[in-house]
Known about the structure:
The chain is an alpha/beta fold.
Amino acid sequence: MTANTLLRVKGITVQFGGLKAVDDVSFDVQQGELLGLIGPNGAGKTTLMRAITGVVTANSGSIHLGDQALTGLPTHQRIRRGLAFSQQLVRPFREISVLDNVALAAGSAHTRSPLKALLHTDSTRERDIARSMLERVGIAQHADQMPGIQPLGVLKRLEVARALAQEPKLLLLDEPLAGLNSREATTLADTIAQINRQGVTIILIEHNLGEVMRICQRLVVLDNGRNIANGPPREVMQQPQVRAAYLGAEKSADITEEQGA
Length: 261
């Protein structure tokens, strides 16, 4: 662990009955990094993210954010220490505006009851933060509209804005590009890269390998719950075990032979 290490995941195992969904996974995330966490369906990516955020309890291993141990803490305490995450399935509060959805998240940093923070006498600060976050993700024009009338592309950005409103040290994004067309995926990936350049450290869980390869500085690859590769994107995607995980062993061997011919 270096002085620049923001997150350290060491030996995390998550077991459901006889199934190890995450099996002794370790990796570090450096301050300012945009790290891609990838792998085929069922690889354990989302379970690992939920272990980091405390939504599921790891059977063994440790997690540190900077010099703070997160292991054993409930989710709300991990958020207070600097974690924020966006969910794969976007579920905004549909009875309040887009702006107030983000203001609620901004209020959560100051009280265990975000609704109380929003409804207290002066919520100017929370709403100012919310407007800033909506501008940051490119949907400020939807601030006073209701989430129920928004297309998926706007809702995905709303989810990112809600996470950013908590002013995190580390932002975890779970498949933010899922369900978007290629144009929407590219523009949202550009927004994520811009947020990273502004100083936010990000772990991106994503199946869209084209966009992952384009914007991420490093990849960690899971397969069957285990960490099988870690390094620069192009180098990682050339590794036989990664090709086998995505393509199957036989197809991977065929491609390797063709490249060597």
